[in-house]
Write a structure and sequence with these properties.
Elements lengths: L2 E5 L4 H13 L4 E6 L15 E4 L7 H5 L6 E4 L11 H20 L5 E6 L21 H19 L5 E6 L1 E3 L12 H10 L5 E3 L5 E2 L1 E3 H11 L6 E5 L5 E2 H12 L6 E3 L16 H7 L7 H14 L2
Parallel strand pairs: 1-2, 1-4, 2-3, 4-5, 5-6, 6-11, 7-10, 8-13
Antiparallel strand pairs: 9-12
Length: 309
């Protein structure tokens, strides 16, 4: 990979991806495209590539890049704030951005790896598998279903072109603090406990989530660039832990013994009680297995957070 494009490269996952690509391929020409609505320039400290300040849903792709052909395009750009309820804005920016990207990439059949989401599974319980029906519960998840639909349509029309979607589960890790209230629950609870406060979680703390460390997310995202076929793959740890267990891991890492502060759940009518990625397809087709189970990933993340304070 000598010519690489990363959209949303100043965001949480995108910046981790861009910097890891730079580390793995030091001779590569890497271009980041970001409009900095949900990204932060600080996430790209140490980045030596090119940064294009632009909204991918309004970018003149051919005007910007001409006949330049990339070896791979990683598409991380998106309105990721699920509290944005302007449906036209969400659908336009997320879906049309991807449509324009595919039009640009299609001329050269440049491999595309794009960020889908476990939110497409909606309110289902138990282990989530890629072939189960989509049940988006909000407009953000709806837009990710449309990305999957667009990718499938283009892949069917051009079987030799590889377009790979990754359904990210609950990602946590470095370069997320700029997201503030939208940062992972692991980071939110860490801040509360670091301040000596009891961590607040919904009663009774037994809701389970598949928390996946950003290091695994980046590793699978890069691996997906060489996928043998187009398709959608789960991207999780493959393990569901309760919020009570999460607090236990944080206590171990911080050397504290803070008890949870249970509060009522005002979102119980649309709150997921269980997320858990079936990682079989990624293991079989991409030869990928997560390296960071929650206990180890959380410990590593806390150590990183403590080292910069």
């Amino acid at each position: 990979m000598r010519n690489i494009l990363v959209t949303g490269g100043a965001g949480f996952i995108g910046s981790n991806l861009a910097l890891e690509l730079q580390s793995r391929y030091p001779e590569a020409r890497i271009v980041v495209v970001d409009d900095f609505r949900s990204g932060d320039f600080k996430n790209l400290q140490g980045f030596r590539g090119d940064v294009v300040g632009a909204d991918v849903s309004r970018l003149d792709w051919h005007g910007q890049f001409g006949e330049r052909v990339f070896d791979v395009i990683f598409h991380e750009a998106s309105i990721t704030d699920t509290t944005v309820h302007d449906q036209l804005l969400q659908v336009h920016d997320n879906v049309e951005g991807f449509r324009r990207l595919l039009t640009f990439a299609g001329a050269s059949q440049t491999p595309v790896v794009y960020a889908s989401s476990a939110a497409t599974y909606g309110m289902c319980t138990g282990v989530q598998e890629e072939d189960q029906p989509a049940l988006p519960a909000n407009v953000y998840a709806f837009t990710k279903v449309q990305l999957d639909n667009l990718a499938r349509e283009h892949a069917l029309r051009t079987p030799s072109w590889r377009i790979v979607g990754l359904r990210y589960f609950n990602v946590y890790g470095s370069r997320e603090p700029h997201k503030k209230a939208a940062a992972s629950m692991i980071y939110q609870l860490y801040l509360q406990m670091k301040a000596g406060r009891r961590p607040r979680v919904f009663r009774s703390g037994e809701h389970k989530r598949d928390f996946v460390y950003v290091k695994d997310v980046v590793a699978l995202t890069i691996r997906a660039a060489t996928a043998p076929r187009s398709g959608v793959f789960n991207c999780g740890s493959g393990v569901a832990i309760s919020f009570n267990e999460l607090i236990g891991f944080l206590n171990e890492s911080l050397g504290t013994s803070l008890e949870p502060d249970y509060i009522e759940n005002p979102y119980s009518h649309f709150y997921q009680t269980h997320t858990e990625a079936n990682m079989t397809r990624a293991r079989v087709e991409l030869d990928f297995a997560p390296s960071w189970p929650p206990s180890r990933g959380i410990a590593d993340y806390v150590a990183t957070l403590e080292s910069v304070r």
